[in-house]
Design goal:
Blueprint lengths: L1 H22 L7 E2 L2 E7 L5 E11 L2 E11 L10 E8 L4 E6 L10 E10 L5 E13 L2 E7 L8 E3 L1
Antiparallel strand pairs: 1-10, 2-3, 2-9, 3-4, 4-7, 5-6, 5-8, 8-9, 8-10
Keywords: Signal
């Protein structure tokens, strides 16, 4: 009987410690802001406003870009290879890559991502000075921001 009481008491103590640990667990990491806009110049392929949406999970981060150019032809899902390069406030560059995109109808804005990259706590990433390069049907399109992103750079926890 004493063994049962000790086991039950130990289980209660372990449960209470686990609950306390959850209460003091660190909050999930987040990027701020999570959405930014840029004015992009894609040369012959067009120019205009693009939206960048970022997420963060530890050191893993993703960025999805709804671009300033429209699809001249229908594009199949996951048919675009993309490389997005940001300039970090510390002077380095950070690259996000991937081949993910939704199916895109003729005339719709080209959306790529989520593109994956690795970030460090405190990274402050700005698209101005970087570029988005997409390759579709063997044709490379490079887009560059013509001014800093608004409301500001992506800052990662």
């Amino acid at each position: 009987m004493n063994g049962t009481r000790i086991s039950t008491g130990a289980a209660l103590v372990v449960g209470a410690l686990a609950a306390t640990g959850l209460a003091f667990a660190p909050a999930a990491l987040a990027v701020t802001p999570d959405t930014a806009t840029i004015n992009a110049d894609c040369g012959f392929f067009g120019s205009g406003q693009a939206t960048l949406t970022a997420t963060q999970d530890g050191t893993a981060a993703t960025v999805t870009v709804t671009s300033a150019i429209n699809a001249p032809l229908p594009l199949a899902e996951d048919s675009i290879a993309s490389t997005l390069t940001f300039v970090n406030a510390n002077g380095t560059t950070t690259t996000f890559t991937g081949t993910e995109n939704p199916a895109i109808a003729t005339g719709d804005p080209v959306t790529v991502g989520p593109l994956s990259g690795t970030v460090n706590s405190g990274d402050s990433l700005e698209s101005y000075g970087g570029s988005l390069q997409i390759v579709v049907f063997g044709i490379t399109v490079t887009c560059s921001a013509t001014a800093p992103q608004a409301p500001g750079p992506f800052v990662f926890d």
